[in-house]
Amino acid sequence: MEEVLSFLESLEDDRQQWKVAHILKDIVVIVLFATLADCDQWTEIGEWAKYHQGLLKKVIELAHGVPSHDTIQRVMASIKPETFKKLLETWQNMLNSNEGEKLKQILAIDGKTIRGNGNRNQDPLHIVSAWSKESGVCFGQKSADSRGKEIPMIKALLDVVSVRGQIVTIDAIGTQKEIAEKIRKGKGDYVLAVKYNQKILHEDIREYFSEEKFLKAIQEQGGYRQTGERERSQYEKREYWQTNDVKWLSQRKEWAGLSSIGMTKTTVLRDDGTQSEETRYYITSLEPNIEDFARAVRGHWSVESMHWHLDVTFREDKNHTLNKTAAENMNIIRKWALALLKTLQLGQKYSIRLKRRILS
User: Fold this and answer.
1) Are residues 344 and 329 in contact, defined by beta-carbon separation less than 8 angstroms?
2) pTM score, two decimals?
3) Which is the most buried residue in 2, 86, 143, 167, by most CB within 10 A?
């Protein structure tokens, strides 16, 4: 927490200072600490600050006392989201500065709608995030009022996020030629899911992997991996195939840097004797390396896990903040809190939800 408090000294406050009663750092510390401590509504944040003002005065000024929850919300609605984005970018750079050489990071890009931000008079805010699996930090995000704008949002996000030396993963909605080109121009690699929105490409890859002789050849060449995991009353088997046998692919040259294709098959075996299968297909700029390919595919679901935590652990959709600036700033704070909670050691292993309750 000392590092966090010191880090927040760099927070820029562009408000008219003669109108300011509560300094920006105080407000942000209250919101961040209260969010860590299982508070999700503005009233909860305000009451938490009142109850813990003795503790807060040890680390922040509170020269004019504890602000009301209305003041906290109003200030959070006045801060440009770019301020928080730059802050977290600096935080991420600080985390990376001492990590040295490591594997390529997985940068998972995906969108989430903040349903509590919408009503009959306005569409809810939709946010596309670039989430780092390894560090559990959001590298950047773009927002819009409609889910239908997700492709332009992904393109805009790639214009501001550095992908150099990283593996970018995107679900099928982002499997667009221009997006692949942006990633390659940024010196990054991509693993893009292929579904029916790229009908011909999907059908060609599906037919290729339906041939047993090709699957056998891939396995002999070391392009196959199998893992398994038991959870509750079922066993999940995951299989991965990757090959650079793509000269036959009619659209190969239309996708910048396309080097290989891949397939995954997930088989769920339940204790009651039933089972289900799901098969997915991918294009990627990665050269054949089944470990990297499997890591990228699995790594993409870290962004889904982040979205799950926002919805379930932080109850984001239950917060009916209609001001879009305040809603986006709180989304950023929740992501930062999630990253901090994941690294927080409390003596034994606790879930993120239980850590929040312990801190409260």
Assistant:
1) no
2) 0.82
3) 167
